[in-house]
Amino acid sequence: MSEVKSKTGNGSDKSIEKAIEKEVYFGTYPVLPKERKYGFIDALLVLSGYCIATWSYTQGSYLATLVNFKQLLIGAFFAALFMLLIYQLPVILSVRYGIDIWIWLRSVFGFKGVNVVTILIILVNFPWYAVCCELFADSMENLLGIFGVSLFPGGHLILSISCVLLGTFIAYRGIGSITWTTRILVPLLLLVGVVVVIVGVTSVPMEVIWNYKPELSGDASKTTNYILSIEANFAFVITLVGGMAEVPRLCKSEKSGFYAGVLGQGLAGSFFVVVGAVMAIAMHHVTGQMIDDPTLMLATLSAPILGLSSLLLVAFANIGTQAVGSYIYGVMLKTTFPKVSYRVLVMILGAYVAALCVWGKITEYFGSFLTVGACVYAPLAALLFVDFFLVRKQKLDLRSAYGLEGHHSYDYTNGFNIVGLICLIFGVLFTLLIYDPIKGIVHIPALFMLTPTGCSFLATGILYFLLCKLAPIRRYVRKDAYVIPDKKPFDRDKVPPKQNFFLFPLMLLICKIITAKNKLKIDKHNMEGVKPPYLVLGTHHSFTDFYVTPLCLAPHRANYISELEGFENFGEWIYRQTGCLGTRKFINDQALIRNIRKVIKRKGIMVIYPEARYANVGTPSELPMSVAKLVRLLKVPVVVVNMQGNYLLSPIWNLKERKSVKLHADVTCVLSAEQAAQMDIKDIHKILTENLDYDEYKYQRDNNMVIADDFRAEGLEMPLYKCRCCGTEFKMITSGSQIKCDACGAAYEMDELGTLHKVSAGSESGLDTLYIPDWYDWERQCVNEEIDAGEYSLDTQVKIEALPNSFNFVDCGVGRLVHNRNGFDLTLYNYRTDKTETLHFAPKSTISIHTEYDYRGKGQCVTLSTLDDTFFIYPMEDGFNATKIQFATEYMAKL
User: Fold this and answer.
1) Cis ω on the peptide bond leading into residue 248 (within 30° of 0)?
2) Residue 89 contacts residue 266 (beta carbons within 8 Å)
3) How confident is the model over 569-617, as pLDDT tens digits?
4) HSE-CB of 469 using CA atoms within 13 angstroms
5) How far is CA 323 from CA 49, 106, 168, 183, 311, in A?
6) Terminus of the chain with fewer CB atoms < 10 Å: N or C?
């Protein structure tokens, strides 16, 4: 609202203020708390007026053809209230944000998608108002008949159209007219309802109504009819979705909006349904016909003057309902066609109802129309409920919902959220799969027992929830997570489950298929008699490790330690089902140690990749002494999985898969439980280091493994950042199979066995033939010497994102990274304290640092972690190289 005012000047022009007010109440702008019109009573009256019309009598009469009066009474109130207590919960969002739910549903369907859904909803639901107008005309015609007056041809249509015109006129005048109409109308209508009940129960013996049972026709069964009655009650309240939107957003409190909807529809609406049933049963007893016109009923069972009095109130009821409905759906359409005047939209809606009145058969197909409407509304309600509470967790990116410039969280695929629309279509088809509302045929009796609406609501909600658990779909649906992130820290203490028993065979099959093309060979050594519990230490080359290791350990299931970004990338549920324990890299995580011990204690297999990052150039990182200490602590056998070829297949500096790479793994029990418990920690460390040693390029040469891909050197400048000839840093470039210094011109060709050969001299220094690991080790030594000489220092501007949990990243803005012999100082916006702060990471607490060369397409980065956050740090200036920072971190930790 304030943004609108700022765009229109200083707000002094009263005509402009009036125009803004129109947009608030007849348009789409959020209603601010101070602008709310309704308390609980007003909202209750408006929503009751919305529900109370002669269609309630039609609903009661319809239910009386299906079930006995006691069942009808229970279903009308309890089924309606049960559905409304769930279904009305999302009105909280309308009150909290002061918005129409159709604004929220842009997050579920996209901007264009919600437009399509809105039009669909109006097409299937606005015929309610044709029912309303038809019943108004019936009442008039029946009453005139009592007094001996016959309508001229076309008179019925004129009466129904007059109801359309009067209701449209009130809606045209706006919310003020509607409010006063309902304040007068609803109490009087309640009085009519009481009179109808009194006349009904006094005109026929009470036991006639209380003991009433419908006559079953054809092959109908009591059970089927009872389910249809519950379905009708569900459908009756669920198709009143429009009232969930525009009226509650004008309420002063969330409780008022919620309970006004529940009680207005669940009590007032249901009361009139029961009144209609009482009337229909009484008229059936007297006349032999189920009549749903209260005017005719009162005139027949009492006195004509009572029918005449009721006529006026019933007329107001239908006209008032038409007015409220036109307002609600007019504002709904305003979100779809914001440039079209509210009043024009109201007139279009009036024309649509008038056309249905001209058709004249809407009441004939009342039951089918009711169920068809629920086919659409049930999945729509499920999507709104699940999205509000479980997916978006009651948070909406309001700027994106209104399409403000620079905010595009809900644009999706050309304006359509494919996931939401698929779920909606699924829900509609699922309903029709269970029950054909046109022919009245039950296709799946077992599911029909839960009602088609109930099944569709549950199935659609579950499908949407599970789809949003899948990481790619979650990121697609929750594009707003970067704007309104979940800041709750990851639960490190949560006990890891065993690998899912039913998922495990599928995991092995996937691993087998993925590794088959590279002819994975597994050799086992000293594994006879080794059974869980035991500890597995694996070399860490690439993501392929996670496909090879399960095959090495089969048929046993295992638990794996995984960095938290893997949970975010693939989804926490899936990662936990595969047995993963979440942690952050290079921190002292005591919760992780406790969970490792729990896995071992329950006789499980614990898999750890102690390098904690992929190999930069196909050689191992230094093994921390803490791993040897863990072995002593656990006192179980230690198995080493030393893999070969995984790095060569897709090195971290260029993840494109190479052809002709063959995979191999040696699985060796290197320590028995007794050795793990008794050996000196240094001796354990030595044994582990020897068995975890590898050189991928040596493996390639030894096996004459030709890698002829023409891009084989591209990206190599990230680990080999310093010219081997002239010593210039950060000037290396790669193309195809060559790496070249942009400073001195020295160039090396990477042959098909991974060896570098000089093809351009550049500086006179430098070797003619180089192994990549040797170049890498030379760079490390250069950094060590730079630190010893007091010359190493990094002070650069960086972009920072925090990962607090398995769900989303949090934007911490632009900050500064300083690195020297005192450790790291990271200056950033701390989203937890809402302040700019500097976090210090001492050298001894940071034994290494995680490096990425092109993290999710954002370029190179390093990460620093606390117990509750991992900070992903991206360079914004020259002089930043992840490999050099890693070398410096590891050396300074030793100092």
Assistant:
1) no
2) no
3) 888 888 999 999 999 998 988 999 999 999 999 999 999 999 999 999 9
4) 14
5) 10, 26, 6, 14, 18
6) C
